Amino acid sequence: MHEYDAIIAGASFAGLAAADSLEGDILLIDRKDIGTRQTSACATFTSVLEELGCRNSIIQEFDTITLHIPEEKKG
């Protein structure tokens, strides 16, 4: 029986990010094969997915990004 340092349930962007941030032997599980369907509406940089070995999970790519950041309330 194999022992893992961490087991992550859910291969959405959050699950992939958590797996990437941990050290050791990590098991990432999902209901379906990882990279075969969209599991999150989140976005990330292509290089992040490439480093995680998940390039084939990309459904759509954009060459620009727009961020809307609320102004800080002063008070």
Q: What Rg, in angstroms, do the CA atoms define?
A: 16 Å
Number of strands: 2
Low-confidence stretches: none
The DSSP helix count reads 2
> How are the strands ordered across the major sheet?
1-2
For the biggest sheet, the summary is: 2 strands, parallel
What would you note in describing this structure?
It is a single chain. This protein is α+β, with helices and mostly antiparallel strands and 75 residues long. It has helices at 13-21, 46-51, and strands at residues 6-9, 26-29. The chain has a two-stranded parallel sheet. Helix 1 links the parallel strand 1 (6-9) and strand 2. The longest helix is centred in the first third of the chain and has 9 residues, at 13-21. The radius of gyration is 16 Å and the shape is extended. The model has no long low-confidence stretch (mean pLDDT 82).
Features:
single chain, 75 residues, alpha+beta, two-stranded parallel ribbon, 2 helices, 2 strands, 11% strand, extended
Brief overview:
The protein has 75 residues and is α+β, with helices and mostly antiparallel strands.
Annotate the secondary structure layout.
Blueprint: E1 6-9, H1 13-21, E2 26-29, H2 46-51
Parallel strand pairs: 1-2
